[in-house]
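Exercise 7.
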Amino acid sequence: MAQIDIQRPHGMSQDAARRRAEDLARRLEKRRGVRWRWEGDELCLDAPSGPAKGTRGSVRVTAEAVRIRVELPLLLRPMRPVVESKLHEKLDAMLGKA
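Solution. The predicted structure, written as tokens, is:
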């Protein structure tokens, strides 16, 4: 699997960062059928069907930073640069840097 790993500092409370990460997960659930759940400070996501089928990832929220990790299945490996670019955009928007 192709892996994407992005980490950014944030200047908000950990609770605020968690809320923003969860808001993003809810939108992905609604638009793309992505399943999500919290495991401590890590928001775990997976796409069981649709165009992103087989994609898994996580968003770890700490008091200082947000780290996104995504594993793309074989069929989506050629799309890695596009997916990574979109993740940077979403992370910027989530952290209020856009």
